[in-house]
Write a structure and sequence with these properties.
Layout (H helix, E strand, L loop, with lengths): L1 H19 L11 E3 L5 E3 L2 H14 L10 H10 L8 H22 L1
Helix pairs in contact: 2-4
């Protein structure tokens, strides 16, 4: 009975992994997670900083929101090895994004 149950469990795991499109080995397996659009995403510090900068800019949130203890706990809960950037880093990132994007606007017009 137990061997059959383990076999069914392993088959279910394999089918789930195949359905999600996540490999068990290779570069896509490390740190990979499935998004709501059924694609595989991989954490990078750069993507995390860009997302924080966009959240602050678009939603008019203060840069200091990343120093909030509950936000830091949320980040640790989701990914314990990640350190949230400082408010100063968020400010610099937003300024860099603005300066780089404004070059494209200038060229366009």
């Amino acid at each position: 009975q137990t061997a059959q149950g383990t076999k069914i469990l392993n088959r279910g795991i394999k089918e789930c992994i195949e359905r999600r499109g996540v490999s068990l080995s290779g570069p896509d397996a490390t740190g990979a997670q499935q998004t709501i659009t059924q694609s595989v995403s991989k954490y990078t510090p750069q993507a995390h900083r860009a997302l924080i900068a966009m959240r602050c800019a678009v939603n008019k949130r203060p840069f200091h929101s990343v120093a909030d203890q509950l936000y830091i706990e949320e980040v640790k809960l989701l990914r314990p090895d990640v350190k949230a950037p400082s408010p100063r880093t968020v400010s610099r990132d937003i300024n860099t994004i603005y300066c780089e994007a404004s070059k494209n606007v200038k060229i366009y017009f």
